[in-house]
Specification:
The longest helix has 29 residues. By secondary structure, the protein is mainly alpha-helical. 71% of the residues lie in helices and 0% in strands. The protein has two domains: 99 residues, no CATH class; 145 residues, no CATH class. It starts with a helix and ends in a 7-residue tail after the last helix. It contains twelve helices and no strands.
């Protein structure tokens, strides 16, 4: 398909474009590469392709229309890059769930359920160390909590928004929850930080870029990593830290 035709379809009939055999083959090609490397071992190529297609149709059409420009090159190549990023997010989300399930059995009761009491105590100790780090942040704690939820791809709730902006209207809250109030692991970082940056700048009365916000959080995460590696007998890299943060936000436990 010629790029000018594809671009016109993207503007006028994007759903038809995504479902064309050519772009469906692009998705399938990327899925096969990931399966060959061990990703999605339990899922069929058809199921994964359908999942990615559904994610694009339901959540990424507007992003693609807004961000693609012919000056960036061929639309098909731009599309495949987006599909690649979505696939990485799906694989990472699946891996994180597997790791979490190996550590925890999520019950409705507000408690940590682990394989044995020793592991339960270890997890609680790590969560308490994490909580002690957060005590350092007083005025900035609501902002930090909001961004850590984004970082760990944890669903954001209206209470998180109101903690940061008590005067937020129902419309403002719903606008944010449209993206962050459901599973948003498929979105790339650039899109998510741009979305949340509007709220941050509004509250702080600034005009900082999304990159500046990301750098602010990166510095906090570096501090957190140093803190945990000093305080704990465990060793924390970025992935381990992200898993711990996800665990912290899980509603099925509480630290007394």
């Amino acid at each position: 398909m010629k790029n000018d035709i594809a671009y016109e379809m993207l503007k006028k009939n994007p759903h038809q474009l995504i479902c064309t055999p050519e772009l469906q083959q692009s998705i399938l090609k990327i899925v096969r590469k990931f399966k060959q490397k061990g990703g999605f071992s339990r899922d069929s190529e058809a199921d994964i392709t359908q999942e990615i297609t559904t994610q694009i149709l339901e959540r990424r059409i507007a992003y693609l229309q807004k961000n693609y420009d012919p000056k960036y090159g061929n639309l098909k190549q731009y599309f495949e890059k987006m599909v690649y990023n979505i696939t990485i997010e799906l694989v990472n989300a699946s891996n994180r769930r597997q790791k979490m399930h190996q550590t925890m059995d999520f019950d409705k009761a507000p408690q940590i359920v682990t394989y044995n009491d020793a592991k339960q105590e270890l997890i609680l100790d790590e969560l308490q160390r994490l909580q002690k780090f957060f005590v350092k942040f007083h005025r900035q704690k609501p902002k930090l909590m909001l961004l850590l939820k984004l970082y760990s791809r944890t669903i954001i709730e209206s209470s998180d928004i109101l903690d940061f902006k008590p005067t937020a209207t129902a419309e403002e809250i719903q606008k944010i929850l449209n993206t962050f109030g459901q599973n948003y692991a498929i979105y790339d970082d650039n899109y998510l930080y741009n979305q949340i940056n509007e709220l941050i700048n509004d509250v702080e009365g600034k005009k900082n870029s999304a990159d500046a916000l990301r750098k602010w959080l990166s510095n906090r995460l570096t501090d957190l990593g140093v803190w945990m590696n000093r305080q704990s007998t465990l060793k924390y890299d970025k992935e381990a830290l992200r898993n711990l943060i996800q665990l912290f936000f899980t509603k099925n436990w509480m630290i007394v």
